[in-house]
Amino acid sequence: MSQWNESGDRDRGRGRDETEDERADRRWSELIQEVRVAQTGVQILFGFLLTVVFTPRYEQLPQTERNIYIVTVVLGAAATGALIGPVSFHRIVSGRRIKSAAVRWAARLTFTGLILLLATMTAALLLILRVATHDAYVPWLVACVVLWYLLCWFALPAWIRHRHTDE
């Protein structure tokens, strides 16, 4: 059974009787839990990427692999920035009574960070596989992994969301 929310609109069966502030608090808590998982992964990957240039093997890499490395590091830095952004965002706007807007912008930063993380992981995988083997199947392996990421991170959630969203 649908409920009426604070502004007199139907709550469309969400099953929650919360004010806008309560909803923003809940959404913020959920978002921060999600960001913690992604932040940990991107920080470990980025930290590893930063060390590669200081290894003796780096000097032996062909220019193509060095270019892929540079792109990967830049993507990793951008992903790190986007995924840490919500924490800074919250700290700067905290107490200004704009949590709803802050949650929306932090969610956008998080989504952008996930896209950048996907690109970083793809480039890192490409680099590692090109160095480990020079076989022609490397692009195919990378493409398969990217398809898997897209399925797990975006397609499946979008399909479930579409399937279970009221018209």
Automatic annotation (TrEMBL):
Highest taxon of source: Bacteria
Organism the protein comes from: Streptomyces graminofaciens
Compositional bias (Basic and acidic residues): 7-23
Annotated region (Disordered), positions in chain: 1-23
Designated name of the protein: Membrane protein
Record key words, sorted: Membrane, Transmembrane, Transmembrane helix
Chain segments annotated as transmembrane: 37-56, 68-89, 109-131, 137-160
